[in-house]
Amino acid sequence: GQQLNQSPQSMFIQEGEDVSMNCTSSSIFNTWLWYKQDPGEGPVLLIALYKAGELTSNGRLTAQFGITRKDSFLNISASIPSDVGIYFCAGQLIQGAQKLVFGQGTRLTINP
Amino acid sequence: NAGVMQNPRHLVRRRGQEARLRCSPMKGHSHVYWYRQLPEEGLKFMVYLQKENIIDESGMPKERFSAEFPKEGPSILRIQQVVRGDSAAYFCASSPATGRGNTIYFGEGSWLTVV
Q1: Which of A49, B13, B92, B106 is deepest in the core (most CB within 10 A)?
Q2: Helices and strands in chain A: count of H runs, count of E runs
Q3: Which residues in chain B touch residue A50, judged by CB atoms under 8 angstroms apart?
Q4: Please, which pLDDT band fits residue A112 given cuts at 50, 70 and 90?
């Protein structure tokens, strides 16, 4: 089945540092989504990308939909303690079909 | 403006018992999805339902698992004769319709522990 490879698996950074994570796939996706999950909670949507090449920001978060449609990255600038959590990329193979394929997650830990 | 509501949040079952997980979608949402998350893994799609119809159940195990979304009431994910490997977090999500820009909202999950 379809698979998303997300990296890195975990990151340990200092508060204030920038963060970058990415997802790649052997399949073409028509939509890329980035979610954050806190312990014991459900995923919360951060950014949605619908077009190849699209670059979208949400506050300190920036994400891009790769030109090949097989990859996406998420950057977090000037990290703060509340950024701690697990970040997941997710892709939709057919736009509007809503069936999401998730990456394995990137666990972000921030040292104050 | 309640979000996607799931209950119970935590459920403990002995091997062989049945587990029923309930999901009320956001107001105005007619599409419901169930995902399963094993520890340290991403979410895996199980099933997609609209009112009274199963649209896509390609991620559902062939046996013991079933889902419904009746005309009235919440969506139910039912696991019969649970085994230890069923221990996981089960997330429900809903959307108003399919189509670009129709965001999927997730509930807070139901954590099933099989002892």
Answers
A1: B92
A2: 0, 11
A3: 100-101
A4: confident
